[in-house]
Amino acid sequence: MIELHRNDRKKVFLPLSNESLVNNRYRKDTKLGEGTYGEVCKAVDILSNTFVALKKVKADQEEEGVPSTALREIAILRDISHPNIVKLLDVYNSEKHLYLIFEYCNTDLHKFLKNNPQDLSINFIRHASYQMLDALAFMHSHRILHRDIKPSNVLLSGDVVKLADFGLARSIGIPIKRYTVEVVTMWYRPPELIQKYNIYGSGIDIWGMGAVIAEMILHEPIFRGDSDIDQLHKIFDILGTPKPIDYPDLDYFTDKKVFDYFPKNNVEFRTKLKSIGEDGYSLLMKMFEYNPGKRISAREAMKDPFFIKN
Ligand code: AMP
């Protein structure tokens, strides 16, 4: 029996089940991907005759047994239900493995962009962005941060978009505590995380979502750095360097060595981004606001003129 803790408030008990229970019920098909802590396969649920995604996690990967990322994902997803968040259908726990059974989606946004190199329509980008923001607004209103927003964690089934991979997600308390800064894949990390500022909030997901939306327009990651400092410089190259004078309350913006002035140099990227129209571009800039306290929230973003139909 595994006991899951979330914020020391809640415990979820997983009874030990037999490995053959899983093998008898689910017939494995193709491999879909490799997650942080295990392989994900497409499978047929023989009972319901539907496809599912089966995530198999080795229970002895870490000294303490099941990886904490898997436990986090279960604890968070068991509690929430939203049309734009992938559904966790079942969990099986044997001595050697933990199996997470998810609803199946056709692809993820990373694969989709690779397989569709032509420009996506503004309507598609608008529709997908709205759904992703809806999922984020829901999570943030339940005080949950995703902390790993990136295209491969956005699943697509037709024109329905679902956020997935909650292995780094966590609940936030009030008052805001100091959290680990080792979250969010580099290219989707906001400056406050790159600067190792360990008091952060929902703004980190908004920045990542901005980077995902930009990638739908550009067909490549907007800020593609290869180290912390290079990542910051890639950001400054497109958005301009934040001036300490504009951010007096942000002490992590006062390191002069890091913040040598970069003008908005990358005209090519900014011109491409503007192909989504004035409203879309302006929303992106609100998502890329340097000051996390002033960054637009998911709920506000959903009311942005970009989403108001003409
Ligand atoms: P994850 O460990 O959740 O990041 O999953 C790794 C990869 O497996 C993802 O990037 C997707 O390509 C694929 N995947 C995960 N969950 C699903 C699902 N429910 N439906 C289809 N593909 C999935």
From TrEMBL:
Cited SUPFAM superfamilies: Protein kinase-like (PK-like)
One cellular-component annotation, GO: nucleus
Superkingdom in the source lineage: Eukaryota
Sequence ranges assigned to domain Protein kinase in this UniProt record: 26-307
Binding site for ATP: K55
Root EC class: transferase
Name of this chain's protein: Cyclin-dependent kinase 2
